[in-house]
Write a structure and sequence with these properties.
Blueprint (H helix, E strand, L loop, with lengths): L2 E5 L3 H13 L3 E5 L5 H8 L3 E5 L7 H10 L6 E6 L2 H9 L4 E4 L4 H18 L1
Parallel strand pairs: 1-2, 1-3, 3-4, 4-5
Length: 123
């Protein structure tokens, strides 16, 4: 089981993704406001952050750079967006993985399992 923080401005995506991941045994927390993401990361201490790349008010490049510059965080970051080029660019910029939006639930579950497995091997 992993602690997963889901950040998206769409309440229906937050609700459905949270419910799906809880069915797979994960503990989820959601955040809908960009200004609350860092606070939630500090409060929850998630293993994985699922981050919508196009939240209003989010400079996702600066956000990723800020997360990666803090060496104390061992946080797996998955960005999701419908823009294939943006997704690839963000993975090159520091995200651990990118996922097409809308995503297929089994694909998301498999990706999380793979990332957690890779994290355990690297520990």
């Amino acid at each position: 089981m992993a602690k997963i923080l889901i950040a998206d401005d769409d309440p229906s995506i937050l609700e459905s993704t949270s419910a799906l991941l809880e069915l797979y045994g994960h503990d989820t927390t959601t955040v809908q406001e960009v200004g609350q993401i860092h606070d939630r990361i500090e409060e929850v201490g998630p293993d994985i952050l699922l981050q919508d790349a196009r939240m209003p008010g989010l400079d996702v490049d600066a956000f990723l750079e800020g997360l990666r510059s803090d060496d104390s965080r061992d946080l797996v970051v998955v960005v999701f967006t419908g823009d294939d080029e943006m997704r690839e660019r963000l993975v090159q910029a520091g995200a651990d993985a990118g996922l097409a939006k809308p995503f297929d639930p089994p694909e998301l579950a498999a990706l999380i399992d793979r990332l957690l497995s890779e994290r355990k091997k690297g520990a």
